[in-house]
Structures are given as C-alpha cells and as structure tokens.
C-alpha cells in the first residue's frame, strides 16, 4: 500500500489532498452544525461559501489555466440563476419532489450558462489582454441590465413578455407575474443546502482537475504559455480557448443555481451579479494563486468568512479585511516572499529526503 502511494503521480497526490481537505472541512462543519456548536449566522454562510468556491475554481480555469483575464464571470452566474429560478417557480406546483425539481433546474442553469459562454466566447476570445477584460465586463453589465428591464407573466393564455412595466403584460385577472423587472423573482423554492453545495464543489473539482491533467488541459496550458508555438504544432487555439471558456461559464451557471435557490427573492444588482461580484471572484483567484485550485478554495473560504467573523469589531472590520488582503497579496506575489518560501520549503524537502 505504501509502495503504491509512493509511486503515485505527483498530480494525483495533489488532487487527492485537495479532495481530502474539502471532505474533512465538510465533515467538521456538518458535525459542528448538527451539535449546535456554531451560530446561526455562521451556519447561514455555508451555502454562500460553496457558491464562492465553485466560482473561484471555475474562474481560475480561464484566468490561471487558459491565461485570459475575464471580468464577466458574474454575468454567467446571473444567467444560470435567473433561468433556473424561472423554471423552479413555473414548475413548483407541477413537480412536487424538491430534489427532482432542483436537479432539473440545475441542468437548465448549467446549459443556459454554457450556451451563453459559447455565444460570447466565439467573438470575444479573438481578443487578448485588456480588450478581452473590457468586453467580458461589458457582457456582465449588459446581462444584469437586461434582467432588470424584463417583465414576464403567465396566465391561462400562456406567457407574456414586456420590457416596459407589469401593466404592459396585459394579462388576465388570474395571471401571475414571474419576473418583475428590478424586483426580480419572488418565491423561488429554497432547495439549496450545504450538502448539495459540497457535492457541487466535488463535481467542479473533478471536472477542472481532470481537464487540467488531460491532453486537452495540456493544450490549453500550451496556449497560455506560448500561443504562436501552440499554433505551430497544430493546436486549434480557438477550439481549446472556447472549451475552457464554456466549461468555466457552465460551472458559474451551477453556482448561480445554488445562489438562486438559497434566497426567497432573487434580484440583479451590482453587488451580486455586477462588476463588484466579478472583481471579488477575481480577488479570490489572485490571492489564492493564479493557477492554484487549492489556493482558490482557501482564499474563497477565508475571504467569505472574514467579514462575518470580524463583525464584532464593526469599527475596524473593513480595515482589518483590507490589511489581510494586502498581506496575502504580498505573501503570494512579492519577490522576496516568494524567495523566502522557496528557500524554506526547499530546506524542508531536503531535510525530509535526508531522513529517508
């Protein structure tokens, strides 16, 4: 058994450690929740943590593995959230089994987000650097603003659509408003749980880690390292860039489904589906280490928990949060810090090898 572990590939060991960390964290938190050892406020953060972990890992696929800067990740989350919430509200009385309805809503949210990923990716991925970042940012803002002017109702005659107001729907007296412009969707079934979030994290990790370590993943990373060299050996750059972008968008859609079914009212604003959200997800990726899946998970958990854990220090909460961000950034990216880590880690490895 020990020999098998020793001969195991380095990437496989790393992936198993990542899965192990996630599983152990889930078991610990589930035990604390079941024994009532944590506050209801902290318990309420478990699903949001799962959402942000999925978003951070999926964005790292584009930013870290593909090497492109995308600022429209919240837009794909928004698409997945609203399409799934629309389905769940329409089907609430038709599909009475909660888990079946949620799984169908999840598939719809993922599919719609993936379609938008393809539609946006085909023209956008021809751009590079700042241009790509600006266009993806614009996409996220367009999606948010479109949702805020959309009114959808349903009566005995079917669905009614408008971009003006509720009165313009011209529904029968028995009609109900499903999407109410800036007020969003009210009455979405709250089917999201910590267990479902944990399972979605494992699925996300499985998809991303297997893609990275596959032939396609190596092709994607070769594009990141040197696009011209990748093209010269016959790698279809457009195909692989679109693949990474679409998978990332689909996973963001899954996070959106989890988000939509964790709230009774779903609205689209700057903080949850706009520029601020996209930047926050990017912060998770950068602070955790670009290209580091495990780092993205840790950064998402710490930075989601930190503002709430510091709530008692209301006067200094944001100051401490900002200091932690700066320290993490310096530790991860400052040349002297990198040199210090490499020197000490190398010393630790040499000492371990000498003992063996």
Strand tally is 5
Q: Give the biggest beta sheet.
A: 3 strands, antiparallel
Oligomer: single chain
What is the number of independent domains?
1
Helix content: over 70%
Overall average residue pLDDT: 84
Number of helices: 16
Structural category is: mainly alpha
Q: How far apart, in Å, are the first and last alpha carbons?
A: 18 Å
Report the β-strand fraction as a percent range: 5-15%
- Low-confidence spans: 1-5, 347-356
Using only C-alpha atoms, the radius of gyration works out to 22 Å
Reported CATH architecture: Orthogonal Bundle
Question: What does the model show?
Answer:
This protein has 356 residues and is mainly alpha-helical. The protein is 71% helix and 5% strand. It has 16 helices and five strands. A three-stranded antiparallel beta sheet has the order 2-1-3, covered by helices on one side. The radius of gyration is 22 Å and the shape is globular. The protein starts with a helix and ends with a helix. The relative contact order is 0.16.
Essential attributes:
single chain, 356 residues, mainly alpha, ABC transporter involved in vitamin B12 uptake, BtuC, three-stranded antiparallel beta sheet, two-stranded antiparallel sheet, 16 helices, 5 strands, disordered N terminus, disordered C terminus
């Amino acid at each position: 058994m020990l020999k098998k572990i020793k001969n195991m590939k380095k990437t496989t060991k790393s992936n198993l450690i990542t899965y192990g960390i996630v599983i152990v964290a889930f078991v610990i938190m589930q035990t604390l929740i079941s024994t009532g050892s944590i506050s209801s406020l902290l318990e309420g953060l478990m699903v949001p943590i799962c959402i942000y972990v999925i978003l951070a890992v999926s964005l790292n696929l584009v930013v870290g593995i593909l090497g492109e800067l995308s600022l429209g990740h919240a837009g794909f989350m928004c698409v997945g959230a609203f399409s799934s919430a629309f389905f769940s509200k329409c089907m609430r009385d038709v599909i009475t089994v909660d888990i079946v309805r949620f799984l169908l809503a999840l598939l719809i949210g993922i599919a719609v987000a993936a379609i938008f990923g393809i539609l946006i990716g085909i023209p956008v991925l021809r751009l590079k650097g700042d241009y790509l970042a600006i266009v993806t940012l614009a996409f996220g803002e367009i999606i948010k603003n479109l949702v805020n002017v959309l009114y959808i109702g349903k009566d005995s005659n079917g669905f009614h659509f408008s971009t003006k107001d509720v009165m313009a729907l011209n529904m029968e007296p028995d009609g109900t408003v499903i999407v109410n412009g800036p007020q969003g969707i009210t009455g979405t079934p709250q089917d999201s749980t910590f267990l479902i979030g944990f399972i979605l994290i494992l699925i996300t990790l499985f998809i991303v880690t297997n893609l990275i370590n596959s032939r396609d993943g190596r092709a994607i990373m070769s594009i990141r390292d040197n696009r011209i060299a990748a093209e010269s050996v016959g790698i279809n750059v457009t195909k692989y860039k679109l693949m990474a972008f679409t998978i990332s968008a689909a996973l963001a859609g899954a996070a959106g489904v989890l988000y939509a079914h964790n709230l009774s009212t779903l609205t689209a604003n700057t903080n949850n589906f706009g520029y601020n959200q996209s930047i926050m997800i990017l912060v998770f990726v950068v602070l955790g280490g670009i290209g580091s899946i495990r780092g993205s998970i840790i950064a998402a958990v710490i930075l989601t928990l930190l503002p709430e854990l510091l709530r008692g220090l209301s006067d200094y909460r944001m100051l401490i949060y900002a200091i932690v961000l700066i320290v993490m950034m310096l530790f991860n990216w400052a040349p002297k810090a990198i040199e210090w880590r490499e020197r000490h880690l190398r010393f630790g490895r040499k000492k371990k090898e000498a003992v063996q």
